[in-house]
Design goal:
Elements: H1 35-41, E1 46-51, E2 54-60, E3 63-65, E4 67-68, H2 70-74, E5 84-88, E6 94-99, E7 111-115, H3 116-121, H4 127-144, E8 157-159, E9 164-166, E10 173-174, E11 179-188, E12 193-198, E13 210-213, H5 220-232, E14 236-247, E15 252-261, E16 275-280, H6 281-288, H7 305-314
Parallel strand pairs: 1-6, 11-15
Antiparallel strand pairs: 1-2, 1-4, 2-3, 2-7, 5-6, 8-9, 9-10, 11-12, 11-13, 12-16, 14-15
Helix pairs in contact: 6-7
């Protein structure tokens, strides 16, 4: 049996990636135009405060807390008109994402503005809060780029708790955006090795799975085949979906796949990649565990879907 036949190890692969732990009750069918007002009036309301791709975290001893009460939020110059209701926690507390306009240079000593990637990389929040953060960050990024109607230019109005924006002039309705990206691990079954590449912006020595945006009118499988061919000149046959990951930079869904290589000669697209090569299982395992291979090569950290694509291949029975 190969990775293309395996059914996993008794768990859902997507549950182990970063930003996937969101357990809020979204109540998507119950959103109405007064939902946000009602949530803001609740004494249980707690809010993520965000600005420019960063979340404002409260320093509490050695830990960070991302949620602010209504009273705490008032000191951060919140833009409640453009806040978004995310959902409800287990104790029925409304959870809201709010853009704030406080000068980040004048933050109180107990509050730090930290970018979303660093929050994940440094493990500053537990999984459930990290998932909620991803939801709020993606929605606020979408809303901030749709403040005006693309058809007539009129200022749009938030509806349905912020999950919809509407133009009062031409009545066009705008809905949250998610950009699908395929990320794939190409497998050379005959030689038992995988294909990894590195972009110039990667940390020194890091290699990862190839990836690219899915285009309109394209299936997930064909996007995997096209992107792999364009970036490496490797042709692939079978494609198998494995896992997905919300990625709030700003509103992407990573779609993780395995694909079977039907050719092995690499020709790198230097506009996309700095290097691309085949790695054997021992080499990939050493990189995954941060051990030195060659000149200290490594893979993305455990929260990244690329990490899990590589690890799950290594743990497969082929």
């Amino acid at each position: 049996m190969t990775i293309f036949d395996a059914n996993g190890h008794g768990h859902e692969p997507s549950s182990r990636v970063a930003f996937a732990g969101n357990r809020l009750d979204r109540r998507s069918e119950q959103r109405h135009d007064d939902s946000l007002t009602e949530a803001l009036a609740s004494p249980k309301m707690r809010a993520f405060a965000m600005q420019g791709g960063r979340a404002l975290l409260k320093k509490q001893g050695e830990e960070f807390a991302p949620l602010h009460s209504a009273e705490e939020l008032d000191h951060l110059k919140p833009d409640l008109e453009n806040a978004i209701l995310l959902g409800f926690s287990d104790d029925e507390s409304p959870r809201i994402a709010v853009p704030v306009h406080l000068d980040l240079e004048t933050l109180p000593d107990n509050i730090k503005a930290v970018d979303h990637r660093s929050i994940y990389m440094q493990g500053l929040l537990k999984d459930s809060l990290l998932g909620e953060l991803a939801q709020g960050a993606s929605l606020l990024a979408w809303a901030s780029s749709h403040r005006h109607c693309g058809r007539c230019g009129e200022k749009t109005i938030a509806r349905s708790g912020g999950y919809r924006r509407e133009c009062p002039a031409c009545k066009q309705q705008l809905f949250p955006r998610t950009d699908p990206v395929v990320i794939m691990l190409s497998i050379d079954l005959e030689n038992d090795r995988c294909l990894l590449g590195r972009s110039p912006h990667f940390p020194q020595g890091m290699y990862s799975c190839l990836a690219g945006f899915l285009e309109p009118g394209e299936t997930m499988e064909d996007a995997v085949r096209r992107e792999t061919l364009e970036e490496s000149a490797i042709r692939v046959g079978r494609v198998r979906y494995h896992a997905s990951q919300p990625w709030p930079m700003p509103h992407t869904l990573m779609i993780g796949c395995y694909c079977e290589a039907t050719s092995t000669d690499i020709k790198i697209d230097t506009n996309e990649l700095e290097d691309c090569r085949w790695f054997t299982r021992p080499e990939a395992e050493a990189m995954l565990n941060r051990n030195v291979w060659g000149n200290g090569h490594s893979t993305p950290p455990p929260g990244a879907i690329a990490h899990h694509l590589i690890r799950d291949w290594l743990e497969s029975t082929d």
